Amino acid sequence: MTESWGQFKSFEGKKFKALDPEFTAEVSKLIGGQDLTTCFQCAKCSAGCPVSDKVNIQIHEVMRMLVFGLTEVLQTDMIWLCTTCYTCQERCPQGIDITDILFGLKNMAYRKGIAPLGYVTSAKALYDTGKLYSPTEWEREDLGLDDVPELDVAETKKMLDKTKLRKLQEDM
Amino acid sequence: MTQSYEVFLGCAIPSRFNNYESSMRAVAKELGVKLIDFDGASCCGTVVLKSIDEHSWLSMGGRNLALAEQRGHDIVTPCNGCFGSLKDTAHVLHDKKQLKAVNKVLSGLGLEYTGKVKVRHFVEVLYDLKDEIAKKIVKPLDGLKIAFHPGCHLIRPSNVAGFDDPELPNKVDELLELTGAKSVPWGLKLKCCGSPLLIASEDIATEILREKMKSAKEAGANCVVTNCPACHTQFDVQAIGLKDENDESLELPALFITQILGAAMGLDSEQIGFELNRVSLDPINDILGL
Has residue A5 been placed in a domain? Predict the structure, then answer.
């Protein structure tokens, strides 16, 4: 099965019809996006990135694509293979919140159905149970640990109905 | 003065690493830190939900923060993921527009977040008590050579985490060395463990882990120590059976900081929960007194 994500694999032979300044403006409005256009391509982000040697498109290239307004950026593997280690953000000489911008890009990609399957199943688990994993009771009994205090799932469901978590991919 | 906190366990610890919770509680009790159960906690939000939808993530985290705030308690968590996510939530909610949007969601639950509650990692609390810890070391762990892995979200982004130097952290190492153990320098110490990629690509997560384990072995470590259940999943679950290109095992005993401190403080070994460590502790049994 072809993955829904990471299908933009190389700049080789690609022709871009138009650069989209609207897209750059939209990304600049994301959480952490305010300094996006100050990127001067020093590539210090990619130098410290733990997956630079494992991705098709590196993080400094993602930054360039954003400044150029190339929406194809949502199809790069870099956005879903970011480990969220924040090394790039910590070291950026322009103070750009690079890792935070990637989160916003993932939100955009997710709404278009461009995401690893694990995220779709996690969204469902978080909605259904309010948690990602359940306690392992026998271990807790062996160690004499009390039960984990209960969560009223109706409360988190009510909240996630309001934020429309289960309807994000509706327009696909 | 007795410190007290609501303890935010998150999802991973009660599911996979009950020995972390048990050893944390034993150490907290010995040091007189009161841990109050966190009623009604959901998932912290995590980078997973932040990746899917930031508004849902902020609401999920905001609800947890508001619950503790309403009860007048600060929060302590032993999980880097929960620490990073809750602190990041509080950081983003400094923005009035974001705060208003989240409180609109929370009002439906009769809650409001105002920004008063503090979130701390359990190792921060321990660091404040390092003099007391030093006095309680009764079983020194001489010969233990620790590759300590701080994990990313304990220290980065530093303007959010606010705990230690993001490029040269040493606070938890200081705590570990109170026990007589040595925290060895290792090349890839600050590199991500790869755990967040298990959801997108287990192959790449494993490649990163292989690089980490090689680095720890090359540095002469005889164990890995973490303060995060997500990182620990790599070192104590995914590392099982992991080999290098010469077919040499890359496993190293993997322990939680609270297990190290608990052992050196002479606490009940059942509560420290060594039985639940998955990679064999045989190579360091003598040092741990098992």
Answer: no
Strands, DSSP E only, in chain B?
3-7, 33-37, 75-77, 119-121, 145-149, 182-183, 223-226, 254-256
Domains and CATH numbers, chain B: 3-122 (1.20.1050.140), 138-288 (3.40.50.11810)
Look at residue A139 and tell me if it is in a domain: yes
Residue pLDDT, tens place only, B83-135: 999 999 999 999 999 999 999 999 999 999 999 999 999 999 999 999 999 99
Q: In this complex, do B201 and A81 lie within 8 Å of one another by their Cβ atoms?
A: yes
* Contact state of A136 with B18 under an 8 Å Cβ cutoff: yes
Backbone angles phi, psi at B224, to 5 degrees: -115, 140
pLDDT digits (tens, 9 = 90+) for B145-181: 999 999 999 999 999 999 999 999 999 999 999 999 9
**By residue range, what is the domain housing residue A64?**
21-111
Tell me what pLDDT residue A19 has: 85
Q: Is residue A1 situated within a structural domain?
A: no
From chain A, the residues in CB contact with B52 under 8 A are 106-107, 110, 115, 119, 122-123, 165, 168
Q: pTM here?
A: 0.97
**Is residue B249 helix, strand or coil?**
strand
What does DSSP say about strands B119-121 and B75-77: parallel, antiparallel, or unpaired? parallel
Q: Do A90 and B153 touch (CB under 8 A)?
A: no
* pLDDT of amino acid B2: 75
Evaluate whether ipTM surpasses 0.95.
yes
Q: Search chain B and give the residue with CA nearest A48.
A: B191
Co-location of A137 and A103 in the same domain = no
Q: Report CB contact under 8 Å: B152, A158.
A: no
Q: Are residues A97 and A156 in the same domain?
A: no
Which of B15, B152, B271 is opposite residue A143, by nearest beta carbon? B271
Do B25 and B259 form a contact (C-beta atoms < 8 A)? no
Instruction: List the single residue in B41, B92, B190 with the smallest CB-CB distance to A31.
Output: B92
Residues of chain B positioned with their CB less than 8 A from the CB of A87:
152, 156, 190, 192
Distance (Å, whole) CA B240 – CA B242: 5
Give the SS3 label for residue A30: coil
Q: Verify that A91 and A122 share a domain, yes or no.
A: no
Mind listing the pLDDT tens digit for each residue in B180-204? Answer: 999 999 999 999 999 999 999 999 9
